[in-house]
Amino acid sequence: MNEMELKYGCNPNQKPSRVYMENGAELPITVLCGKPGYINLLDALNGWQLVRELKKATGLPAATSFKHVSPAGAAVGLELSDTLKKIYFVDGTIEMTPLSNAYARARGADRMSSFGDFIALSDVCDKATAQLIAKEVSDGVIAPGYDSDALEILKGKRKGNYNIIQIDESYTPEPIERKQVFGVTFEQGRNELEINKELLSNIVTDNKTMTEEQQRDLMISLITLKYTQSNSVCYVKDGQAIGIGAGQQSRIHCTRLAGNKADIWWLRQSPQVLALEFVDGLKRADRDNAIDVYISDEYMDVLADGVWETIFKKKPPVFTKAEQKEWLSKNTDVALGSDAFFPFGDNIERAHKSGVAVIAQPGGSIRDDNVIKTCNKYGMAMAFTGIRLFHH
Predict the structure, then answer these.
(1) Annotated catalytic, 313?
(2) In the record, what terms sit under GO molecular function (predicted)?
């Protein structure tokens, strides 16, 4: 079929709604279960492009968690530590695979934002990945295929209405893309830029050293930014995005937003948070929310008498700012990508607070000298890619 009717557009009042192929060709997607909506399909198709490129660049299975046309998380299939398994709620009975590791990382980086996400997988969905997906609140998944066991598990989600989409991985879109705004048609060439290590060759700082792992993480950050609403920056560590700042008008606000998310990801691994004892039966989303509040300035919202008893088995001590600062100082070797140049060194100062060691950005600001000088102050290595990655 070359078109699909949708329930409605972005909002219920926006009818009629459909997706279709202008050239009369077959749609590259097949809906195996459920009835995806307008935003679901935007997330699915953007997410698929992201994971396809991640796999091509790294050679590893990849996954992403999309919400409102930007990724909440993206990762490749590196093995999980015991700590990450705990904070990502990975069931010890599941026989983990590279793809399921990628999904656990993508979903777990920013669990608050990933709630109700749309998932994209670079490889055929296997049983382990489906078992993880089954336990999370999600709108749907897109992948090039599904094992029979995985499909059976996913079809049982949301009372049989879970959105399961299969993408034709051989599909190649036309080189020109179009969209309408206020009745006016916009046309542009697709962003087919290949992100690879060559983009990281122009290192402009005193420190010229980037390890293979750091280069991999910078490529992950840039590919993630390619499909993130601009302005955007992305912090990456050990093969996964740990903080994504999307759609901000100010570059420093992107850097702060993403840095704060990266800090939360690291604080979740602290002994103070790992020691939290939740009451039996507390749902995952409620645990995530409680942790988020516990490490914030509003911690008394979960520690007040009459409240903590509904969340914790025993009242935890306050996680002080001094304790948090000490733990955050242990987060190192983080990679940072930016979809456009950093105009001032304040972005580097904020990145340093979240353990950033290597940076990739286009360069070209009239204050490049100030940005480079700030990197040199902290011994960071920064590459100028010469390429902007705006996405709207």
Answers:
(1) no
(2) IMP cyclohydrolase activity; phosphoribosylaminoimidazolecarboxamide formyltransferase activity
